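[agent] plan:
  1. take the single chain provided in the ticket
  2. run structure prediction with default settings
  3. attach structure tokens to the ticket
  4. add a short note for the reviewer (M.T.)
[agent] executing step 1
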Amino acid sequence: MTRARPLPSSARPLTVGVAALAAAALLALGLGLSISVGAASIPLEQVWRLMLRPDDSSNSLIVWTLRLPRALVAALAGAALGVSGALMQGVTRNPLASPGILGVNAGAALAILVMVVFLPGLPAALYVPIAFLGGAGAALLVYAVASGVGLTPLRLALAGVAVGALISAASNALMILFEQRAQGALFSLSGSVAGRTWEHVYLLAPWVGVTLAVSLLLARRVNLLALGEDVARGLGARTERDRLIVSLIAVLLAAAAVAVTGPIGFVGLMVPHVARALLGPDYRAVLPLSALLGAALLTYADVAARLIDKPLETPVGILISAIGAPFFVYLARRIHRADS
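[agent] step 2 finished; step 3 output follows
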């Protein structure tokens, strides 16, 4: 397993500050582009003006009704997936861990589909809790399968891929058998942020805001868990309790994103590696940077999704997968060579 060593609390403050400011500026520009680009393009300077002083123009209506909530959903979901992946990689000491690889995204999506098909009367406010239960169940199944053959990074990843494929097959079967009932879930599970409204922002923001804040408070515990079981216990950590809490927060973050955007893979895999490459293994720095980079990645991917086949739109999940799949293969080969 990959071992992460925490940096001293005063280590490299300038680098951390510069990286955070650069990521925040990148995200701000991405949000501006997300609001500017579309079937009807709006100049960036006009976007900023309408953000500060909305008026009765059609462009103002487009900004505030269509594009701003979509951009916020992309940023919130990207931040949630980025931090979820970082927490999973820290708590498992596995560089291949992420919500998509460990089956959490697929489990959350299946749970929402079951809710829509069999319990259509339930309110939308239950989307995130139901998705959490599905994601947690999938993660437990992956760990059970991987533990049966020996828990290594590659075996855990392979177990996650296998379980995720099985769950996705179950989702497809439900959509075929209950085609009419499943129509209501297709929009939510499309792996896209297209058409998301303020209702989706209000559904996603509280869950992501609270869990991100909690995850930052847990960063020191993640540092200890990343050192390994014996070292963490020697430093006074209650490893079983801490691992359970961190894992639940990671699953809840991923489930919140899936409940609104559908399963979008590889954000949680790639972003933490970039954050650690920039700032080192200290999760007190990695987690907030993962949130900013994850938000920026999904925001820019959504902008690109609108431009590839304009005026039609490509689901943003496809673009992320096109980048993430080669990254996953590269990591797996590097780990295999290191273990050989």
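[agent] step 4 note for reviewer: The first helix runs from residue 13 to 36.
[agent] ticket updated
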